[in-house]
UniProtKB/TrEMBL annotation:
It comes from the Bacteria. Pfam families: MEDS. Residues 16-173 form the MEDS domain. This is MEDS: MEthanogen/methylotroph, DcmR Sensory domain.
Length: 288
């Protein structure tokens, strides 16, 4: 059975003040890409406050999101937190909320039906004054969103933020979001990938995880369109599990494709088993 998040990223709606807790950079980028994709598809304006905006644009593009085109048209804005929430190395609730309310008004004035905002909260891990106001900020954001045409996704790294901080802000969010997970232990994580649709594998994968891998693949196959198997963070896969993935790709109809992303050491297993000869299957070797 799937061990899912309280809410799937694709379920978020207007007025949601959601808290995304992630454990890996790929998880953050995948779930944010889905949040952005769905907003753009609905004609909404999307804003993402994050570190290294140009790199984030490239990452969205790698996931099939037309982010650069949307940014050029003003439909998407990516900026640093210093440009929005902070003033230098200082944080104040009043200033941050003034920025958000101004952005909300400008979006409505430009004719957008709604606004989606993703906030990478990693800035709160830096030496910033006023950080003690973080719970007050989340409380004020929750109150401000009521009755608006906006949704906000606050992004917290659960490995870097301490449990006390996460507990202090969790009650101000209407929804808790994480990737639907099929298997998670210190050695292996198998979870759903949202953009592009498929599954994501990280760690050490062998036959002991056969059941979880089988469930993840079967659910991915039931989705429409092509599927992606993201193994960029996989350090080991045995031949049995590699065959399972190839068999899943082989089972797709002729109108669908399977794209297998992996590093050189993992790709050698798939090449040995003839994955490149399976119709509709593409092996993409990532840097590693």
């Amino acid at each position: 059975m799937t061990v899912g998040a309280e809410t799937q990223i694709t379920d978020l709606t207007i007025e949601d003040h959601a808290c995304l807790t992630y454990g890996e950079p790929e998880e953050l980028l995948d779930l944010t890409a889905a949040f952005v994709r769905d907003g753009l598809a609905a004609g909404q304006q999307v804003v993402w406050l994050a570190e290294e905006p140009q790199r984030r644009l490239a990452e969205l593009g790698r996931r099939g999101i037309v982010a650069r085109e949307a940014a050029a048209a003003g439909r998407m804005i990516i900026m640093t937190c210093q440009e929005g929430l902070l003033e230098g190395q200082a944080f104040a609730v009043d200033r941050a909320m003034h920025w958000f309310r101004d952005r909300l008004a400008r979006s409505a004035g430009e004719g957008y039906p709604a606004l989606r905002v993703a906030l990478d909260m990693s800035w709160a891990l830096q030496p910033v004054s006023g950080i003690e106001q973080l719970p007050a900020f989340e409380e004020e954001m929750a109150a401000t969103l009521a009755g608006t045409n906006a949704a906000v996704l606050c992004q917290y790294d659960r490995a870097r933020f301490d449990p006390v901080t996460l507990a202090s802000i969790s009650g101000y969010h209407t929804r808790s979001v994480a990737a639907a997970t099929y298997h998670h232990d210190p050695l292996l994580r198998i979870c759903r990938q949202y953009a592009p649709p498929g599954i994501r594998l990280a760690g050490h994968l062998d036959r002991s995880a056969e059941s979880a891998l089988g469930l993840a693949l079967s659910e991915a196959i039931r989705l429409e369109g092509d599927i992606s198997v993201n193994m960029a963070e996989l350090s080991f896969i045995d031949l049995y599990c590699a065959r399972m993935i190839i068999d899943a790709a082989r089972s797709l109809s002729s109108t669908r494709k399977a794209v297998l992303h992996c590093g050189p050491s993992i790709s050698s297993r798939f090449l040995l088993l003839g994955a490149s000869d399976v119709p509709g299957t593409r092996l993409v070797i990532t840097d590693g």
